[in-house]
């Protein structure tokens, strides 16, 4: 008997015609044993050809599918002018954030002299910004989900503009404090909504870089205050703080809403339009839109957002990471050093004018390091490097003030203190300054992002208010002891980051959130 053909094979028309001809011959001709042997060999050859054709066809299908996937990936990874513009407009609020953070350092002497404030009154004025930001943080998440990211930024701009103008034209301490609280509430909204908005519009392979520009613009605001505070009146500095808010108010008319928020509220058509603007008019956004919608529906079906949801076992890990990073950021002394840099230099015996000018020139370049490295090194290495540097420099500042108290090396301790303060601010900027906000914007799923984001932001600003208010009194207690405490907090922070903080580099928001909810241990080991 002649071998039969497997009907499961997929054949081309030519192969089918050839096999059909051979079958016809088999049925119409009597074969000798030699002929049958030759015929069997021919059939075996054709069968091998069939298999090769099937494999080739399957490979071709796989290649086309892979090409389609890569096209979708390319669309998701495309950096368009709209993404750049949207990020720039969003971080204009961060510039005002930086001005507010460093304002007390540049305006301390002028305000205390013109309005005849005591140290306690000025310390209260400095801390009212962070207190106001804590109030803003309570409403930031809910406002961002009800109004959307863009409208929330508009509200924050209005509050900041009112606040800065109140400070600029203040005639007494009441208007000064009112303006500080008003701008602080606006900053509380900005600190949450800006990193969240940027993370939600950015391509995943550069999301860290784009979100870190939030820190870059904060440092630009700080640089402006440190540099300009030497020769500009404190009222003019306040007006400069309001300028980026006006730019943002206008610019927000020309940028799209967050696609994730549009998916959350069920605006499918607007979601597609937003993605097309962000990824380019000819981009294939079907896969990304589908991923966003599926993940949003999954977490919404899983549970409704409420305060109690945060304490579900699957969310505890992300909440601990978010709150822990914010506590580390503040109790390591960052807000105090940035707000009172001039006071520290004055106590060290270093020229405030020279020191503030050099710090201002240093601010932007050192922030650029973090922007460049965040998506190359990853979040964990940068955080560990940053906290290590802050821990070491805090201890060294404490040593410098100890030597000063003992009246040892009086010529060297002022310069040494300035160098250590500069390195402290530099190491803070490349990691701990911006990465807690980057990670906060990445790890919380949409169904708890409102509540969790608000709590994390509240913790950040509340702890910042405590540190800012207490810093002057801590310096009166013990200058060197204050920095030893900051160094000890940095040591504990290293342990926390090493054991708990996940790496999120190169993952989409949906991948990060699904992995942290289901398998936090595996993510932590990466």
Automatic annotation (TrEMBL):
SUPFAM superfamilies: MFS general substrate transporter (SSF103473). One of its GO terms (molecular function) is sugar transmembrane transporter activity. Keywords: Membrane, Sugar transport, Transmembrane, Transmembrane helix, Transport. Gene3D superfamilies: MFS general substrate transporter like domains. One of its GO terms (cellular component) is membrane. InterPro entries: MFS_dom, MFS_ERD6/Tret1-like, MFS_sugar_transport-like, MFS_trans_sf, MFS_Trehalose_Transporter, Sugar/inositol_transpt, Sugar_transporter_CS. The chain crosses the membrane at residues 79-99, 119-140, 181-198, 234-255, 319-342, 348-374, 381-403, 415-438, 450-471, 483-501. It comes from the Eukaryota. Residues 86-505 form the Major facilitator superfamily (MFS) profile domain. It is a multi-pass membrane protein. It is found in: Membrane. Belongs to the major facilitator superfamily. Sugar transporter (TC 2.A.1.1) family. This is Major facilitator superfamily protein. The lineage of its organism: Eukaryota, Viridiplantae, Streptophyta, Embryophyta, Tracheophyta.
């Amino acid at each position: 008997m002649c071998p039969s053909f497997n009907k499961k094979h997929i054949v081309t028309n030519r192969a089918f015609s050839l096999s059909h001809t051979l079958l016809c011959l088999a049925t119409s001709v009597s074969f000798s044993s030699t002929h049958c042997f030759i015929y069997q060999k021919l059939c075996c050859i054709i069968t091998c050809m069939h298999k090769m054709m099937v494999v080739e066809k399957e490979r071709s299908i796989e290649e086309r599918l892979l090409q389609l996937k890569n096209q979708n990936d390319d669309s998701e990874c495309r950096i368009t002018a709209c993404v750049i513009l949207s990020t720039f407009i969003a971080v204009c609020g961060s510039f005002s954030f930086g001005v507010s953070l460093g304002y007390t350092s540049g305006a301390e002497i002028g305000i205390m002299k013109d309005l005849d404030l005591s140290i306690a009154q000025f310390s209260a004025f400095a801390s009212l910004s962070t207190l106001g930001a804590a109030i803003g943080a309570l409403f930031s998440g809910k406002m961002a989900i009800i109004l959307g990211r863009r409208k929330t930024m508009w509200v924050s701009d209005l509050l900041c503009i009112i606040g800065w103008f109140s400070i600029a034209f203040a005639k007494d301490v009441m208007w000064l404090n009112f303006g500080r609280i008003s701008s602080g509430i606006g900053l509380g909204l900005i600190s949450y909504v800006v990193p969240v908005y940027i993370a939600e519009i950015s391509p995943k392979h550069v999301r860290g870089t784009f979100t870190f520009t939030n820190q870059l613009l904060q440092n630009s605001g700080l640089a402006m205050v440190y540099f300009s505070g030497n020769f500009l009146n404190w009222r003019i500095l306040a007006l400069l703080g309001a300028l980026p808010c006006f730019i943002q108010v206008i610019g927000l008319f020309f940028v799209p809403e967050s696609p994730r928020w549009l998916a959350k509220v069920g605006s499918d058509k607007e979601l597609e339009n937003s993605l097309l603007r962000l990824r380019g008019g000819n981009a294939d956004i079907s896969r990304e839109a589908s991923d966003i919608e599926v993940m949003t529906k999954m977490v919404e079906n899983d549970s409704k957002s409420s305060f109690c949801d945060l304490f579900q076992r699957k969310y505890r890990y992300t909440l601990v990471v978010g709150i822990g990073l914010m506590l580390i950021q503040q109790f390591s002394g960052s807000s105090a050093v940035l707000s009172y840099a001039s006071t520290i230099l004055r106590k060290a015996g270093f020229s405030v004018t020279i020191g503030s000018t050099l710090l201002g020139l240093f601010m932007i370049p050192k922030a650029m390091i973090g922007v460049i490295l965040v998506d190359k090194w990853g979040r964990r290495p940068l955080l560990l490097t940053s906290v290590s540097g802050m821990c070491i420099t805090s201890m060294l500042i404490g040593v410098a003030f100890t030597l000063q108290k003992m009246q040892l090396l009086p010529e060297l301790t002022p310069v040494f203190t300035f160098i250590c303060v500069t390195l402290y601010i530099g190491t803070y900027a490349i990691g701990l300054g911006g990465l807690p906000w980057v990670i906060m914007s990445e790890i919380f799923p949409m169904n708890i992002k409102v509540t969790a984001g608000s709590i994390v932001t509240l913790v950040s600003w509340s702890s910042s208010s405590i540190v800012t208010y207490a810093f002057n009194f801590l310096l009166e207690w013990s200058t060197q002891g204050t920095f030893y405490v900051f160094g000890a907090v940095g040591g504990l922070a290293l342990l926390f980051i090493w054991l708990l903080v996940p790496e999120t580099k190169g993952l989409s928001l949906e991948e990060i959130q699904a992995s942290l909810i289901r398998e936090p241990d595996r993510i932590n080991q990466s």
